[in-house]
């Protein structure tokens, strides 16, 4: 008994000692700045002169700021597109790699991961060539298949800029989810598939009635990862369109950057970030709860 | 694992579709590589064709002037500093989370998970204020500290997952011998943790190398800019010579790709380990 309590004391102390450097560091450069952003969001401040206390003024302005809300909606659209074009597409690809062409899974995985490794700035710069209105590959491809009438300056026109950015994102981050799902799909026991094969199930049936329910935890975790990543997105948008033209592809991060470091409205920029974070937490939580329920449903189908 | 499957029509179709898809995904990179061997005239004549000659002019053009080399050195310094801090802190903390379970540990895990979800730009304005106050704005250290902090939580979870795989008897045996907890960490845990620390280091090196938001905001002096930030300047200045521009992009992209080629196993393990908690 006394040995137990002394070990509990000793481990408590050791845990504090080993954890405190990391915790202090994260507190100083993550938690404290976030709280500080909440404080700064109450002021009008250009970053140099005396801050002027506004109270909730920045948030009132934010509530009526159409550009902010449109940017936030675009972040949500990015998240939804990521769930479909990255998470679910990756699940299908992972099934194919593990179950249908396992001999090639390693080489495919390698190439799918190449864009995950390279800086988003490099990727964005390369895609600016692909989308180039004069010699870009996208336009050349359209001409080649007789759809020359659809040629346009994809990143430079308000109607297409955001979609063009989303396409690049889905190509860029897909590989991460393929990797995560390959690991999950490999963990599904072979015997389950064998039982289904005896019943004459084809790949479609096996995918939807075995793989999807069996890896549903991974689907949920990866969707959450995709949502969080989508709300964080900055570099690709910055380098492809910088939110333009005329805010047509603006996301919250690029808007904050412009407000804080273009217009030097530091207080308002802090308010944008703070509001975004609160809405992010709320959104992630709701999505998580909701998918738990779908997950229970998917389990029941199998 | 998976039993050997008989090759059939489905396999052929799937292989063809996947091949076409993966080619689309990596074509920009493939195009970048072969285009750097063209001269600007050849590039202007036909943008998408393979090079007829094998010219290294683009690399000479990109490297001359020395700007890219300077950016690369800055990136290297920031990468080394941030990675070092993150690995040390994450190893200590990951060990603690795996080896000790006081009642308050789940609260620490939860707050680390929450920290992972926070977009870095939320902290951007306050960090500028803090760094300016500390005289660290426009310095390498000013980028290193927040960058490391934002990479610590996920790195802790990767280390914790590794330490969780170790049998607890290992530490108990050392305790029986009268070793202090610090000795146990130093003499028992640390030597076997080296591969996991290396894994965490590799992924952090890639993340820091590619990072853009903090360096672009915190650094103004051209002589201190990192490669991705400097690259955007470089591209603006070399708008007329596309092969030189592409060679510069390739130079910025090559370091993570080389790491990936050599350490694919460690990197994929770290990404899977980090995502499980995410």
UniProtKB/TrEMBL annotation, chain B:
Metal-binding in keyword set: no
Q: How does it sit in the membrane?
A: Multi-pass membrane protein
Key words of the record: Cell membrane, Membrane, Transmembrane, Transmembrane helix, Transport
Q: Which CDD domains match?
A: TM_PBP2
Primary location class: membrane
The residues that cross the membrane are: 12-34, 78-100, 112-131, 143-163, 184-209, 242-263
A GO BP entry is: transmembrane transport
Presence of the UniProt keyword Cell membrane in the record: yes
Q: What Gene3D superfamilies does the record point to?
A: MetI-like
Q: Which domain of life is it from?
A: Bacteria
User: What is its subcellular localisation?
Assistant: Cell membrane
UniProt-listed PROSITE patterns: ABC_TM1
Its Gene Ontology cellular component terms are: plasma membrane
Which residue ranges does the record assign to the ABC transmembrane type-1 domain?
Answer: 72-263
Pfam families the UniProt entry points to: BPD_transp_1
Instruction: Tell me the protein family, please.
Output: Belongs to the binding-protein-dependent transport system permease family.
The record's section on PANTHER family has: ABC TRANSPORTER PERMEASE PROTEIN MG189-RELATED, ABC TRANSPORTER PERMEASE PROTEIN MG189-RELATED-RELATED
> Which named protein is this?
ABC transporter permease subunit
Q: Per the UniProt entry, what species is this protein from, by scientific name?
A: Sinorhizobium medicae
């Amino acid at each position: 008994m006394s040995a137990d309590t002394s070990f509990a004391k000793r481990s408590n102390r050791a845990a504090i000692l080993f954890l405190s450097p990391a915790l202090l560091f994260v507190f100083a450069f993550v938690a404290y700045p976030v709280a500080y952003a909440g404080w700064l969001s109450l002021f009008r401040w250009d970053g140099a002169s005396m801050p002027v206390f506004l109270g909730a003024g920045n948030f009132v302005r934010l509530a009526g700021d159409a550009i902010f809300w449109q940017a936030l909606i675009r972040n949500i659209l990015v998240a939804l597109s990521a769930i479909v074009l990255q998470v679910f597409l990756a699940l299908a690809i992972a099934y194919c790699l593990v179950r249908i062409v396992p001999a090639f899974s390693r080489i495919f995985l390698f190439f799918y991961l190449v864009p995950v490794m390279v800086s988003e700035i490099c990727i964005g710069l390369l895609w600016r060539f692909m989308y180039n209105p004069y010699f870009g590959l996208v336009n050349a491809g359209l001409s080649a298949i007789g759809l020359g009438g659809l040629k346009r300056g994809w990143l430079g026109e308000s109607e297409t800029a955001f979609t063009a950015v989303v396409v690049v994102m889905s190509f860029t981050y897909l590989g991460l989810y393929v990797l995560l799902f390959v690991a999950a799909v490999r963990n599904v026991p072979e015997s389950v598939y064998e039982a289904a094969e005896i019943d004459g199930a084809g790949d479609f049936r096996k995918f939807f009635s075995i793989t999807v329910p069996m890896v549903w935890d991974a689907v949920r975790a990866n969707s959450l990862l995709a949502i969080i990543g989508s709300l964080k997105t900055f570099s690709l948008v910055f380098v492809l369109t910088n939110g333009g033209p005329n805010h047509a592809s603006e996301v919250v991060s690029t808007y904050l950057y412009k407000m804080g470091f273009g217009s030097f409205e530091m207080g308002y920029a802090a308010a944008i970030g703070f509001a975004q974070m609160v809405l992010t937490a709320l959104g992630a939580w709701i999505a998580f709860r909701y998918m738990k329920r779908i997950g229970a449903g998917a389990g029941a189908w199998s | 694992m998976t039993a050997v499957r008989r090759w059939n029509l489905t396999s052929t179709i799937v292989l063809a579709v996947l091949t076409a898809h993966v080619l689309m995904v990596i074509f920009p990179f493939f195009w970048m590589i072969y285009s750097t061997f063209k001269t600007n005239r050849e590039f202007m004549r036909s943008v998408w064709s393979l090079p007829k000659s094998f010219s290294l002019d683009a690399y000479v053009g990109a490297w001359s002037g020395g700007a890219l080399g300077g950016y690369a050195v800055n990136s290297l310094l920031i990468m080394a500093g941030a990675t070092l801090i993150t690995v040390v802190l994450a190893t200590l903390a990951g060990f603690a989370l795996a080896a000790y379970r006081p009642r308050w540990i789940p609260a620490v895990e939860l707050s680390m998970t929450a920290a992972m979800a926070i977009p870095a730009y939320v902290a951007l304005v306050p960090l500028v204020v803090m760094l300016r106050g500390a005289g660290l704005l426009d310095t390498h250290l000013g980028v290193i500290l927040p960058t490391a902090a934002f990479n610590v939580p996920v790195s802790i979870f990767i280390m914790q997952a590794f330490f969780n795989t170790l049998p607890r008897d290992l530490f108990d045996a050392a305790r029986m011998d009268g070793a202090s907890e610090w000795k146990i960490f130093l003499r028992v845990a640390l030597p076997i943790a080296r591969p996991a620390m290396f894994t965490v280091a590799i992924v952090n090196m890639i993340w820091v190398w590619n990072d853009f938001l903090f360096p672009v905001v915190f650094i103004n002096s051209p002589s201190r800019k990192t490669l991705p930030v400097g690259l955007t300047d470089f591209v603006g200045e070399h708008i007329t010579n596309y092969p030189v521009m592409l060679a510069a992009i390739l130079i910025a992209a090559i370091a993570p790709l080389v790491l990936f080629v050599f350490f694919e196993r460690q990197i994929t393990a770290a990404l899977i380990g980090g995502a499980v908690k995410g």
